Amino acid sequence: MNENDIRNGYREHGALAQLYRWWQWYEHPDSPLVNQLDIMTSDIRIDAPSGLVESRDAYAEVAAVFPVMQNAHIPESIELTMGDGEISGTADITYLNIGAQPDGALTAMKIHYELGLKEQASTPLPLFNSIAITMPGAAEGESEFRDAYAVSRSRSLVHYYLALLEDPNRTLEPFGEIFAEDVSLSFGPEPLTGLDDFSGFLERSAATVVASNHVITDFAAADNGDNTLTATIDFDWFGILPDGGQMTAATRHTWLINDDPTARFAKIQRADVEHIRPFVRTDS
Question: Whole-structure pTM over 0.85, yes or no?
Answer without folding.
Answer: yes
